[in-house]
Amino acid sequence: MYKIAKSNLPALFRAIAETKELYLPIRRAGQVNFGPWSEDAEVDVETLKTVKSPKDVFFPQSENLYSCEREGKDIKIEPQALQDQEFVVFGMKACDIKGVEVLDKVFLADPIDTFYAARRDHGIIVAMACHEPEESCFCKVFGVDCADPEKSAADVAVWMLGDDLIWKAITEKGEALTKAVESLLENADADSDKLEEEKNNIRAIVEKLPYSNLSLEGWGGDKLEEKFNSPKWEELYKPCLACGTCTFVCPTCQCYDIKDYDTGHGVQRYRCWDSCMYSDFTMMAHGNNRTSQMQRFRQRFMHKLVYFPANNDGMYSCVGCGRCVEKCPSSLNIVKVIKSMGGEQ
Amino acid sequence: MQEELIKRAKELLADGTVARVLGWKAGDLPYNPEPSYFENEDQLKNFVYNGFCGANLSKYMIEASKLEGKTLVFLKPCDTYSFNQLIKEHRVDREKAFIIGVGCKGKLSIEKIREQGIKGIESITGAEMTDDAETLTIQTIYGEKTCTYASAMLGRCHVCKGKEHQVYDELIGESKDTKDADRFAEVEKIEAMSPEERFAFFQNELSKCIRCNACRNVCPACSCRKCVFDSTKFDSAQKANVDDFEEKMFHIIRAFHVAGRCTDCGECSRVCPQGIPLHLFNRKFIKDIDKFYGEYQAGEDTDSKAPLTNFTFDDVEPSIVGERG
């Protein structure tokens, strides 16, 4: 176990960035989102939640898949290069890492998504414990322990402890990263009591959060008929503006669309996140199989709380990050849906 | 005021004047009430009206106009401008609406509260409409915090258009003019920038855009049945996040489309998850329209001719664009 003074973090970031691309929370025009580190980027590791989840790092909102170019009578096809360099994501929270585990179920199952797999293979995750969880958080409901990212699928776990940052390597990749920045770290074995105290403090806060005891009773893979046909949806969806905010800030929403962009002398085939809230979601040649906003709204929650667990050994595809709770323009969110259709009131 | 609103809603439902009520339902956190329909007395138990009821319900009336019977809708003074504009554009049916103009003392933004470092919110007092509290007292997991009501107000309330409802059947509750800033001060600040600075400013802001389309979907002026950006034949998908497009096209096109019709209700900036000050585009247009065609406030009435859809010999020549640089 190591530590580094918070005041020395810029040196740590610089050292990591010397050999690897580094993504971390950056404040830009008032908002904090994950982005690439640069000398003049305003790093903000204090803000609990970035607006968007860090899922972009592994599954970008828009990415090219290949491009075609006309060359005389031939068409040249240029596949997009796969990620082949190691990179570091610093400051992911335990809920967002659980979100990546959800994405893994989708993209790493056969047929493997090579773009995603290449990024997962080359990504090194430095997870940060949540020093002060907020009222919109409900990760505990989905079995996430935000006090101890060591239990997550991260490579290194870090904690904010007073003026220091505690650093603990978890995996081989994490050990290698630790070795690369070792000169900046000092031994912190003496701080292990303080670290346990911090973990206990965080867990005590989590117990006090309003959503921590949310019950998932009534939800799950075996509740398809009952939930799908519930008359509640008609009432619940009404305030929905049909915007894509919930889906785009969500760490687990994984739907995407594939489109062609006419470059004038060729075609760029790209994919971009889709949103089940949008009118052309899953549009096919025959039209759209979900013709009303109620159906689209229902799709989002059925997917997270019924279809996904049905196909993935009971794993829900919500991790309780609470971004939709904070960002929905109409103050709708998955918690309200869980509560009004089965869970604890 | 909340009790009065509930009482009146019950009466109007009971005597058959209205078939439903469109208002706000209490949320499960102190700050998240949602727009909601109420169809009976029992449902009205969850009705709430407080400082966090910022959502402008005018646009919901497009759909409500298609329903059987009248809908009772609660509109704040600024919301009534949007409703009038929708009447003018034949998007809502005045006969299908029973409008109660509700008092407003400025609406609150949870983001503005969070910006002050307040987190772990358990309860908020001072947001109710029943007292004149100037201070919000906020109980949090991390101790009790306070902030002034004004510091937690939505940006739009600092340039409040006034206490007068532009259209209503009845009025309930007192309003307060919360204006404490010049409406065009922010625009003037940007006009004073060099073109390079201005471009950098907007690029920095608009590059945060995630194409959630919340600004468009909440906008009462964006009431096209099918938006051009939702067309599947459009080259740039409405959902693809491509910096160049957001920075240079999407928001600009939208601002042009709503120019002369935007009432400056501020919903675009309220809902943006990335805190982009989208109202600045619209307000720049309003400022220019005022200057070139005479002062005009969209939504002030339902029958005047709008400056951009009307021709007069006094109209400014298009060359003005070149002249002003």
UniProtKB/TrEMBL annotation, chain A:
Has the keyword Iron-sulfur been applied to this entry? yes
Q: Which PANTHER family match?
A: ANAEROBIC SULFITE REDUCTASE SUBUNIT A
Signal peptide feature range: none
List the residue ranges forming a coiled coil, or say none.
Answer: 178-205
Q: Name one Pfam family in it.
A: Fer4_22
| Domain (4Fe-4S ferredoxin-type) ranges | 229-261, 307-340
Please indicate if the UniProt record lists Coiled coil as a keyword. Answer: yes
Which InterPro entries does the protein's record reference?
4Fe4S_Fe-S-bd (IPR017896), 4Fe4S_Fe_S_CS (IPR017900), Helical_ferredxn (IPR009051)
Domain of life per record:
Bacteria
Entry keyword set = Coiled coil, Iron, Iron-sulfur, Metal-binding
Name used for this protein in its record: 4Fe-4S dicluster domain-containing protein
TrEMBL record, chain B:
Question: Entry's SUPFAM superfamilies?
Answer: alpha-helical ferredoxin
Instruction: Specify the 4Fe-4S ferredoxin-type domain's residue ranges.
Output: 199-230, 253-283
Q: Name any one Pfam family assigned in the record.
A: Fer4_8
**Which UniProt keyword terms apply here?**
Iron, Iron-sulfur, Metal-binding
Protein origin, superkingdom: Bacteria
Record keyword Oxidoreductase present? no
This chain's protein is named 4Fe-4S dicluster domain-containing protein
Q: Which organism is it from?
A: Hominisplanchenecus faecis
